[in-house]
Specification:
Layout: H1 18-34, E1 38-39, E2 45-47, H2 48-55, H3 60-65, E3 67-70, E4 76-79, H4 84-93, E5 103-112, E6 124-133, H5 138-155, E7 161-166, H6 170-186, H7 193-201, H8 212-217, H9 230-246, E8 251-252, E9 264-271, E10 280-286, H10 290-293, E11 301-307, H11 308-324, E12 328-332, H12 335-350, E13 355-357, H13 364-374, E14 378-382, H14 384-388, E15 391-396, E16 401-406, H15 410-420
Parallel strand pairs: 1-5, 7-8, 12-13, 12-14
Antiparallel strand pairs: 2-4, 3-4, 5-6, 6-11, 7-9, 9-10, 10-11, 14-15, 15-16
Bound molecules: histidyl-adenosine monophosphate.
């Protein structure tokens, strides 16, 4: 009889991996509690209606990815695809607005989306989620992104970028929606079925489409950031100003529209280039109207969530690199160059420069592939021509630049280059 397997896209976290998770959770609690956030834990299942109303009927999450089911009483429930709507529901349900002023919450736990599983994308995944209620000031937008950057750093991840954008308020959105709709209509009927439908129901969602043809048609689409009102512009300028004062680096990216309907004004994503197509490790923004849309008081709010599986993958990757990455890879072409490379590599190693090389005279292409995989910062390339000229090419794999160096004192040159980094 076949043994029962776990559900596709839902993973066990085994004892040998749990250290990564506990480390991330420890750093999260430390950083968030320092900024005044309190932990909250909401149920994993909620009424389906909460997410349909909260996230938006025509979003991919609600339309295609929700684990929705009728329970034994025939009530429609859903496994939570995110935490924001649940925390807003809890805030309303427990009358928390009675305690005026700022409230900050965080939640760590599993979420569920029926997406096609691949590296970094799962059907059960875990989020660190943070939400703030009760403040309209751009100070809190900047503080949240500053805190998020600190948290990523404290977790031990480097080389990520904070992308920010503004989606305007309900009024500028309404004007923009019509401008976008007119543009989409003028582009004709070359869009996919989903986008043809979105064009009528919720035009902004066309930017979520992954169909190549639609992407091309959207290349010169009007951008929301160019159509926001004066108040929204002033809010965004203030957010950027505070970020600069806090020393938090960011890039304005008008393409950050986010996949959930509730956002207004500030939106942001933390992205990496180390996880292939699953490049977002976290994202969030302001959602001032959601509380009211869910039947609560008119309280401004904002928040973010980070995917823990993606954080673990990045940490593991960084650790592997730190352990295994040779600083140099010596690629050579031809027997004579191969022999010189072999001898020089020993000299480099003797001087404490970690070096890997090809011993078997493979093609340059396959050596470059190996060099790339090895994580080496520098690749030395020595062919017969270079050897004849007593030169070697040095390629910096990080900056993707290349220069020619004399072969004679290559060890000293590399040592000097290395200490500059
Ligand atoms: P989101 O962008 O849908 O935002 O998800 C946040 C993060 O969760 C993503 O950046 C990603 O790292 C991770 N994530 C999402 N889907 C998956 C998946 N299938 N597998 C692995 N990781 C995934 C939200 O969920 C909003 N609730 C964030 C927020 C909070 N906005 C305001 N407050």
């Amino acid at each position: 009889m076949d043994a029962v397997q776990a559900i596709r896209g839902m993973n066990d976290i085994l004892p040998e991996q749990i250290g990564w998770w506990q480390g991330i959770e420890r750093a999260t609690r430390e950083v968030l509690e320092n900024f005044g956030y309190c932990e909250i834990r909401t149920p994993i299942a909620e009424k389906l209606e909460l997410f349909a109303r909260g996230i938006g009927e025509s979003t991919d999450i609600v339309e295609k990815e929700m684990y929705a089911f009728a329970d034994r009483n025939g009530d429609w429930l859903a496994l939570r695809p995110e935490a924001t709507a649940s925390i807003v529901r809890a805030y309303i349900q427990h009358g928390m607005q009675a305690d005026p002023g700022l409230r900050k919450f965080y939640q760590i736990g599993p979420m569920f989306r029926h997406e096609r599983p691949q590296k970094g994308r799962y059907r059960q995944f875990h989020q660190i989620d943070a939400e703030v209620f009760g403040l309209e000031s751009p100070k809190i937008d900047a503080e949240m992104m500053h805190m998020l950057s600190l948290l990523v750093e404290r977790i031990g991840i480097s080389g990520v970028a904070l992308n920010i954008n503004t989606l305007g308020c309900a009024q500028c959105r309404q004007i923009y929606r019509q401008i976008l709709k007119d543009f989409l209509v003028a582009k004709g009927d070359g869009f996919c079925g989903d986008c043809m439908r979105r064009r009528e129901t919720n035009p902004l969602r066309v930017f979520d489409c992954k169909v190549e043809g639609c992407g091309q048609l959207l290349q010169d689409a009007p951008r929301l950031i160019d159509h926001i009102c004066d108040d929204c512009r002033a809010h965004f300028d203030a957010v950027k100003d505070y970020l600069e004062k806090l020393g938090t680096r960011y890039t304005v990216n008008p393409g950050i529209v986010r996949g959930l309907d509730y956002y207004v004004r500030t939106t942001f994503e933390v992205i990496t280039d180390k996880l292939g197509s699953q490049s977002a490790i976290g994202g969030g923004g302001r959602y001032d109207g959601l509380m009211r849309d869910l039947g609560g008081p008119d309280v401004p709010a904002l928040g973010f969530a980070m995917g823990m599986e993606r954080l673990v993958l990045l940490l593991q990757q960084e650790k592997e690199m730190a352990h295994r990455a040779p600083r140099c890879f010596f690629a050579s072409l031809g027997d004579k160059a191969g022999e010189s490379a072999f001898l020089l590599a020993q000299q480099l190693r003797g001087q404490g420069i970690e070096t890997e090389l090809d011993y078997e005279g493979r093609s340059l292409k396959s050596q470059m592939r190996r060099a790339d995989k090895s994580g080496a910062r520098y690749v030395l390339i020595l062919g017969e021509d270079e050897l004849a000229r007593r030169e070697v090419q040095l390629r910096d794999m990080l900056t993707k630049t290349q220069r020619i160096l004399p072969l004679e004192n290559i060890v000293e040159t590399l040592l000097a280059t290395d200490s500059e980094q």
